[in-house]
UniProtKB/TrEMBL annotation:
One of its GO terms (cellular component) is cytosol. It holds the Pfam family Glyco_transf_9. One of its GO terms (biological process) is lipopolysaccharide core region biosynthetic process. Belongs to the glycosyltransferase 9 family. It comes from the Bacteria. It catalyses: an L-alpha-D-Hep-(1->5)-[alpha-Kdo-(2->4)]-alpha-Kdo-(2->6)-lipid A + ADP-L-glycero-beta-D-manno-heptose = an L-alpha-D-Hep-(1->3)-L-alpha-D-Hep-(1->5)-[alpha-Kdo-(2->4)]-alpha-Kdo-(2->6)-lipid A + ADP + H(+). It comes from Desulfofervidus auxilii. It is an enzyme of class 2 (transferase). One of its GO terms (molecular function) is ADP-heptose-lipopolysaccharide heptosyltransferase activity. The lineage of its organism: Bacteria, Pseudomonadati, Thermodesulfobacteriota, Candidatus Desulfofervidia, Candidatus Desulfofervidales. Its EC number is 2.4.99.24. InterPro entries: Glyco_trans_9, LPS_LOS_Heptosyltrfase, RfaF. Keywords: Glycosyltransferase, Transferase. This is lipopolysaccharide heptosyltransferase II. The keyword Glycosyltransferase applies.
Amino acid sequence: MDKGKIRILVRAPNWLGDAIMGLPFLENLRYIYPQAHIGIWCKPHLRPIFKAYSKIDQVIIYPNSILSLFRYFLKLRYFSACILLPNSFSSALSAFFSGIPQRIGYATDGRDLLLTQRYPPPEQEALHQIDYYLHLLKCMGYEVKHCIPTLNTLPEGEEEEKRLRLKYQWQRDYIVFAPGAAYGSAKCWPAFYFAKLAKEIKKTAIEVLILGSQKDKPMAKKILGYSKDKKGIYDLTGLTSLAGAMSIIKKSMLVISNDSGLMHLTAALKHPQIAIFGPTNPKRTAPYGKTTKIIYHQVACAPCKYRQCPKDHICMHQIKVEEVFNAVQDLLS
């Protein structure tokens, strides 16, 4: 592509964690095309992430209504190129119908004819997800630099954090639990363990805030159900926007999470956390940077792609509360 004043649209991944792992791609794209107008094309729930990211010029939200789709495509025609980070056929089809002349991505999912520049994907099991995205730039003939995804909080998130703190009156010293995982329960440390950990943390006069989407509400209820003393544990699942969650995370002492979108969000905020891995491989999806302490015990059946463990969930059950609490004490000291 010409390095002049061109307009490049990047189709973002749909998952929160993958979207954050795509930020180094955008960082490199800005370095390669410093004068270009770079837009990000994303699902509505990801808007706060890209609004908080300074290297792009425009955030375009993918419409939920099929009826407005073709009218929406007219807005995309002034882009000269679209780079697809997702591997899906649907993302290539959307770019094709948009009329954008250059459509660039990996030759996956039978979408070769929809792309004008297609490249064979690298072996995904051998690469970190960040490097998987960066490899696309290498295929296009560019050198890439490794960088750590970085985000700042948003003003609307700060206001939301103030409103919630005023309502629920949690203390200044608190630890965030992110006990959910959008992919499925296989990636979740057991609720009973989170409850026991909360009990130990509260003995140190530190409170616990549980963060997550509405889908994580059942997990939060289980944690509270296992807790005999619920004082000092606040269930905020489903009550925050993504921007609000960012501010709550940033003001916490640390975060304890599964391999999830909130794990990557915490890392991008440069905030200390303990990340618990079980069925997934940290070599592929662990956050970049030095603010994350990873707890992971390799088992024979991992890594796997089960959403729900068909066995005894040994990869998570063997990570004991004492080990995680010791890591908490080490980080706080």
